[in-house]
Amino acid sequence: MKKTLSLLLSLVLMLSLALPASAAETEYPTLEGGVTEIQKYGNIVLDIDPADLKDGGYTYGDLLTVTVNGTGYDMPLCTNYSDVDTGALVLRDSEGVLIAAINMGDFATSNGLAAKVTAEDGSYTWEFPEGQSLESITVSISMKEQGGYYDQYLIHQLTRTDERADYASDAVFANFRNVAVGDLGENAFFRSSSPVNNELGRASYADDLAEAGGIPVIVYNVPSRTGLNIAPETALELSKHPLSNGIKEASGNISQVAKIAALCGDELNIYSGNDDQVVPLLSLGGKGVISVVSNVKPELVHNCCKAWFDGDTAKARALQLEMLPLCDALFCEVNPIPVKYAMNVLGWEAGECRLPLVEPSDAHKEQIEQALQAARVIKE
Questions:
Q1: Bond preceding residue 356 cis, omega within 30 of 0
Q2: What is the pTM assigned to this prediction?
Q3: Is 81 a catalytic residue?
């Protein structure tokens, strides 16, 4: 197995966790109430007692519909904001108080309930739309899917250490351990619930892997695949290792890429991991793209980057937009299913996908072929 230049630091934690006993026959009561407070960061405090939820059969990990002023929001019942990803909705049971929130976001402002006005001295008030007030906000809670978030909830409850005694079972501990892979051997590759969260001291594991390989590495941030995001602050820590050559940024979050660029400067090369965001990342100081589209039309991707580096931003923009239909087609299903099919259509004999990947659907095959024709890669 060849040593790879890309370091996949965010790993999917795969646990076989049983859901609580099924309650398909259960009828869950709809609980109604209001809002007693909008907190500093826009979380709304409900006047519904968590004990009433529990009495009605609700439990942590259930996916609920919280309806606020007539608009329904699906969110899991959890105990911490961090039980969901950044930007996700959560209904938190905070020591006997229910709080509807967006993790690292502002629920009240985002959903038009109120606008925060901050004074020069740092104090703040909430201004409500005309004719509305805190007391006029209505809330109801109903069951969306019993146990619908249970696996993810349990994963977020894991004690994140490498000590067996901190885990409930060998099966759980097995998801945080050394894994021998190819030539890397022991103490080089780790499975973890949060492999690079430096608040938990995780950057050292990335250092271990880089040193075991002994060659420059590129950090690969692809939260859509792994369910874990490499934060800009963690990227900064990783950039300090002499073997950290760059980061393939596939989060799709341009604001995050800008922060990585601001924090890391020239210490960490940034490469786009999304073909539809090449020019935006180059504009933030990116060095290029690790591309899927280049497998079927390399000159298009090359010319786009070259135009940018030559200072012809108008041409780079035009080529970026020309690339979009291919981007859409080559990501119509999970990568690399579409691009492998495209390569076979082009005669490169890439072979069949290995399970659990399968052939694209007939509709997606047609979409891929039409995109290849439109890009003049194959003739009609």
A1: yes
A2: 0.51
A3: no
